[in-house]
Amino acid sequence: MTVLIVLAVLALIIVIGVGMYNRLVRLNISVDEAFAQIEVQLRRRSDLIPNLVETVKGYAAHEKSALESVVAARAKATSATGVRDVAAADGAMTQALRGLLAVSEAYPDLKASANFLSLQEELSTTENKVSFARQFYNDNVRSLNQSVKTFPSSLFAGIAKVSAREFYEIENPTDRNVPNVKF
Question: Among 33, 57, 61, 165, which lies 20 to 30 A Cα-Cα from 150?
Fold first, then answer.
């Protein structure tokens, strides 16, 4: 009878261990998937930018600095890797786009252009998707980090080769500010 109890306890410990291991692996995969979704949306935004720049360029040729900052930010965004670099490039891109869209306010013909309005709507929709993807990623990171750092699942984190992950944050506080555009 004692042997059966010991075997039952060992079986229970093994089942709990396998369950925790699998949960940590699933959470880790969810974080990877969530980050991939951020990259998909950032790529979509990046693909819209050349069309937006060309449309604005036709109306606001002398607003060269705003156009150049968007092009430079896009170049950085497409080459960024890792959570920290992608977040920094994303913040710079958002700032540059805000500046470009603010420039458009000075050109009534541009604001009335069907092509510009369509691109602006598409960009706005994409920005919303990027925001959702960031939040989804951070929610998944929170769940993973809680599991990695709390007992008893923390005992299985090393075995599952899972560690705490970085949150998606914009490090430079000035990237959060609305740009100051003067005409």
Answer: 33
Residues 6+ apart with CB under 8 A from 119: 48, 51, 52, 55
Pair of tokens at residue 123: 């960009």
Identify whether the C-beta of residue 134 lies closer than 8 Å to the C-beta of residue 86. no
**Measuring CA to CA, which residue among 25, 30, 39 is closest to residue 134?**
39
Domains of the chain: 21-176 (1.20.1440.20)
**pLDDT one digit per residue (tens) for the chain, 183 residues:** 899 999 999 999 999 999 999 999 999 999 999 999 999 999 999 998 888 888 877 776 657 777 788 888 888 888 888 899 999 998 888 888 888 888 777 777 776 777 788 888 888 899 999 999 999 999 999 999 999 999 999 999 999 999 999 999 877 655 544 444 343
pTM, full prediction: 0.77
Q: For residue 152, what are the CA distances in angstroms to 19, 112, 161?
A: 11, 60, 15
